[in-house]
Amino acid sequence: MLISHHTSSNGTNDDYHDMLKQKIKLANFEDWIFLIVSIILELLSAAFDQASSPSKSNYALIGMLFAIVAVISCICELIHKVKREGAKLGRWGMLWWFYHPPPTIT
Length: 106
Known about the structure:
Layout: H1 12-51, H2 57-85, E1 88-92, E2 95-99
Antiparallel strand pairs: 1-2
Helix pairs in contact: 1-2
């Protein structure tokens, strides 16, 4: 099978597509890292919670610390995705929410 690459006269279109592909790969990698870290933290939290008993209360404390770290990592993931996608914080009355502004036509 013969595969040819289209190159424009100035090369900017291909450069843009290469940059876009690189960003998508990086975004997918970052999403997988956040997912794996969250799963590991939740599993550790559940394991220590199950291992705790009235005589072994330290396990419950460790499990709670893992749960708090998992929540913090989820908040970091949310902040990262908001920055990456360009979402804005909007307000309607007393309600706050994130929204993605429509693209500007130039």
